[in-house]
TrEMBL record:
GO molecular function, one term: metallochaperone activity
Region (Disordered): 1-28
Residue spans crossing the bilayer: none
UniProt cross-references to Gene3D superfamilies, sorted A to Z: TorD-like (1.10.3480.10)
GO BP annotations, alphabetical order: chaperone-mediated protein complex assembly; nitrate assimilation
The protein, known as: Nitrate reductase molybdenum cofactor assembly chaperone
SUPFAM superfamilies: TorD-like
Organism (species): Terrimesophilobacter mesophilus
A Pfam family per the record: Nitrate_red_del
Basic residues bias (residue ranges): 10-19
Length: 242
């Protein structure tokens, strides 16, 4: 796949360079599961217990196709060079404070609008349809959670969820790259695990890159309460986060 060099007009008369495309990788089902499980660990908040798993991740991803292994290695090398405090501070400054680096997938299609509440309910129903339940602690569209669901579930629903929010994941990758964040490498590995992006999806993705998510503020979490990481019925979330 060649790098796109077209320039697009955006509101206000400014012109933005289209984000670069990535080559996708031909993966087996097991390799795709490995990519998604590794990414779910690395994209989660890097508290000490989570960071202690990085060495295990490094050994597993080393046998993946070269371009994906290189993406993971680039992140792990940069993250290892940071102290615990530096990595946590970077995570917060990127994922909590940058609008286009939101780790919650429904934000890219609905923003903080009235429609987001229904989109979140749709995620809960999708998990339940696959035999999983949402527990307390996290919103159900949290990207590391969805990736773990994809890695651990035999249901095609997980792949359908990721495909439905492909544009948002591509926007996240592009934004992370623009900020020079090492987390861009992890999201790049995830994007390489997907089928090649089609023209219609790319057009929507470019529009989101240029315009950002909708901005109508309504505080959707007030009626949904504290939604949380899913796990199969009868298992704790610690049991499924390897």
């Amino acid at each position: 796949m060649t790098t796109v060099t077209e320039r697009r007009r955006v509101p206000g008369g400014r012109r933005k360079k289209a984000p670069k495309s990535l080559d996708t990788s031909a993966l087996t089902d097991d390799e795709r599961r490995t990519v998604h499980m590794a990414a779910s660990i690395l994209l989660d908040y890097p508290q000490p217990q989570r960071r202690a798993q990085f060495d295990q991740v490094a050994s597993v991803v080393a046998v993946l196709p070269q371009e994906i292994a290189a993406d993971f290695d680039a992140f792990l090398s940069e993250a290892t060079a940071m102290s615990q405090g530096e990595l946590e501070a970077h995570f917060t400054s990127i994922f909590d404070q940058k609008r286009k680096c939101c780790p919650y997938l429904t934000y890219y299609s609905t923003g903080d609008t009235r429609r987001r509440g229904m989109a979140l309910v749709g995620f809960i129903e999708a998990y339940r349809a696959a035999g999983w339940e949402v527990e307390e602690g996290e919103l159900p569209d949290y990207l590391p959670m969805v990736l773990e669901f994809s890695a651990r579930s035999d249901s095609p629903i997980a792949g359908q969820l990721l495909s439905s929010y492909r544009e948002g994941i591509e926007v996240l990758r592009t934004a992370l790259e623009s900020f020079g964040s090492p987390y861009s490498h992890v999201v790049a590995a995830v994007c390489r695990s997907f089928p090649e992006i089609d023209a219609a999806t790319r057009e929507r993705y470019l529009r989101l890159v240029n315009e950002g998510p909708p901005t109508e503020m309504v505080g959707v979490t007030t009626f949904l309460g504290a939604l949380a990481p899913f796990s199969p019925s009868g298992e704790s979330s610690e049991g499924v986060r390897v």
